[in-house]
User: Fold this.
Amino acid sequence: MPIFSDTELQEISELQKRYPEPAATLLPVLWRIQDKRGWIDSDAMEEAAAICQVPKSHVEGVVSFYTMFFEKPMGKFHVQVCTNVSCMLCGGEKILDAMKARLGVANLERTPDGTFSIEEVECMGACGGAPMMAVNETFFEKTSPTEANEVIDTILAKGEIPTPKFVQQMPELSEASNR
Ligand code: FES
Assistant:
């Protein structure tokens, strides 16, 4: 079954008109696939290759290079904990250990019900807020094992990612207020 609807293919076609080569849209095409499916399997890579007019081997290289693309299913809530230098010095590894213990899964694995997965990540560009973790695209900065567990508590209770505390303190920084 094709990944994209006719409308979506039309949108991609419009995007491709902005670039000299269809290959230039490979990253956004892959991102849309992951957004729709949660990961990028072999058939999806084939479809992306056809849309962007590149060999499938090129798509495989791109997907394996960028760690933000998943080659196997991840959880609905993907927990990423940074253990690069700034975060490591501020306790990132303790947060990672706490999340592994809480969720009962190893790095790049997901819980049996598919709700959570965990990933140890390199710098996510939020060093000033070290130690940090992210759940999907929401960043939790200057966090701790206790607060990380509270994030999981909220997701389990409400089925949604809580608002990070720095956004609560400075609502003008929220994504919604910047649109
Ligand atoms: S070192 Fe963790 S966000 Fe940069």
